[in-house]
């Protein structure tokens, strides 16, 4: 009897929680935009997003600036260690102290996006370097079809100093070195692979300087799982001037394969995580979003940050792949298809 009464009370209580969760207070800012938190109106974040889209991203394009805005957010945040003694994490130090951090070898090619972002950052004026840089990453990434909406937390203090060198993984690094660096920053191997979903909207300018803009998969303008598949295909040729440091044979003409991506796709510690992403758009989107949410507040006191995620662009559409089968490094998970069946060269059955 007592148990029945308790159960009834529990049902009532749970119902109340659900109703509360469903009621989210919305606020209309002076600009006319609607947000869940009035604090996101005050710093005029909506007009900032419009400015980023027009001045940085060529009118909401998923182009090189959007790709590089994501890359620089990683290079900024990863300068951090959960054990201390490194940089301030996701603090915008790579922008504010760019004359130091751009000297680091691993930041090759980042100079272009710093040159693009710095004047806009200065013109906006009221955002800290960290808030600016990680908002730009969230806005730019969401411009890419298939990409999840990344979180944006507002309120990072200005960076205190440049991050030290040798915090950003390089394509020539061993899997052990890469996983140790990610672990030092607080990421498990599965989260490292989730973050590498970013290479679905990526190209290299400096790995082989003779062929700038060479993409890592055949659909670099779409945030799909294609990179996870194409890295598993049999390599047949180099796209440019022979083999460069950090590059291995690629399966498709005009495509570059990073040695680090390939090794991670084959290593027993990460192969199954890599392979599980193939043709699983939901998995990739949710894991990438979760890992990025962690990355974009590394080193920050999250109790002092305000969730202003809804200042950004809308939720994306899904994409599915079909095509011939490919090589498997992880037994037990079937790798299904290559998106474009006309590009079958190099496929391993
Ligand atoms: C093992 C870790 C990683 C290595 C070794 C690596 C290496 C590289 C290299 C060598 C390039 C090409 C640079 C150039 O030649 O211009 C690149 C591009 C890129 N990377 Fe990574 N990366 C790693 C992880 C990440 C992560 C975690 C992210 C984001 C969360 C990321 C985002 C990007 C993007 C978006 C580009 C393309 C930039 C553009 O097209 O302008 N990378 N990466």
TrEMBL record:
Q: Which InterPro entries match?
A: Ccp1-like (IPR044831), Haem_peroxidase (IPR002016), Haem_peroxidase_sf (IPR010255), Ligninase (IPR001621), Ligninase_C (IPR024589), Peroxidases_AS (IPR019794), Peroxidases_heam-ligand_BS (IPR019793)
Question: A GO molecular-function term, please?
Answer: metal ion binding
Detail which positions bind heme b.
199
Positions marked as site (Transition state stabilizer):
71
Give yes or no: UniProt keyword Protein transport. Answer: no
Q: Which cofactor(s) does the record list? A: Ca(2+); heme b
Ranges where the record places region Disordered: 316-349
Signal sequence interval, chain numbering: 1-21
Q: Where is the composition biased (Basic and acidic residues)?
A: 340-349
Q: List the Pfam families.
A: peroxidase, Peroxidase_ext
Q: Name the GO cellular-component terms.
A: extracellular region
Write down the EC number: 1.11.1.-
**Biological process, per Gene Ontology:** cellular response to oxidative stress; hydrogen peroxide catabolic process; response to reactive oxygen species
Q: Where is the active site?
A: 75 (proton acceptor)
Q: In this protein, which residues make up the domain named Plant heme peroxidase family profile?
A: 125-334
Out of the domains of life, which is the source? Eukaryota
Which residues take part in binding Ca(2+) 1?
A: 76, 89, 91, 93
Write out the annotated subcellular location: Secreted
Give disulfide pairs as residue numbers. Answer: 29-41, 40-308, 62-144
* Keyword set, alphabetical order: Calcium, Disulfide bond, Glycoprotein, Heme, Hydrogen peroxide, Iron, Metal-binding, Oxidoreductase, Peroxidase, Secreted, Signal
Family statement: Belongs to the peroxidase family. Ligninase subfamily.
Task: Spell out the PANTHER family in the cross-references.
Answer: CATALASE-PEROXIDASE, THYLAKOID LUMENAL 29 KDA PROTEIN, CHLOROPLASTIC-RELATED
Q: What name goes with this protein?
A: Peroxidase
- Tell me which species this is from: Pholiota conissans
Taxonomy, top ranks, is: Eukaryota, Fungi, Dikarya, Basidiomycota, Agaricomycotina
